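Cross-check.
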Amino acid sequence: MGGLAGSLLGARLLVHPGPSQAAGAPTLLVLGDSLSTPQRMPPGRGWVALLQARIEQLGLPHKVVNASLGGEKTAGGRRRLGPLLAQHRPAMVLIELGGNDGLSRVPPAEMADNLRAMVQMSREAGAQPVVLGMQLPRALNPRYREAFAEVFPRVSREQNAALVPFFLEAVTAPEDMPRYFHADGIHPNELAQPAMLDSVWRVIAPLLQGQAQAATR
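Predicted model, tokenized:
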């Protein structure tokens, strides 16, 4: 976990939640697709469950709510987000959507509009939005793949939102695919989950630390 983990471990004495703080713990909402719901692996082994375990290990006050849905596209996430924000009042929203749009050839402009709306909705509800970038399999149309991949950094720049550049970067090198993916070549297996978490953690760790310190004031 490197220096970020070290700084968070150092902050543990400052933010370790007592009973009253735990009751009002800030919520981290994960809005994703099947990449964020365990696929053919034991419960508790997916990256979202590992995220909650790491947060608890570091003594941070956050609780993780996984609102991911297999097969979800950005349009569906956009429709579901409003009620989820009202229900959970999250301090942070991780938007892990877009992969199914790409596989279904949804126009990049439409996907960008949905992601932009989810970022804005999250911020208006008082949550820090984080966009998890995605890329499509190399076998697909190169022009579409390029347009698709550019959506995530563009929305992040336009909305000044935190970005995980490519959520699966650590597990998609061609020589690593047989080790980290199920036979479908789309869904990462259990071995891939810690690396997926690390990709997200590098971006959200300083944000979580700031929120934890604010919660103790």
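The beta strands are 27-32, 63-66, 92-96, 128-132, 162-164. Residues 2-215 form a domain with the Rossmann fold fold (CATH 3.40.50.1110). Passed to J.P. for a second look.
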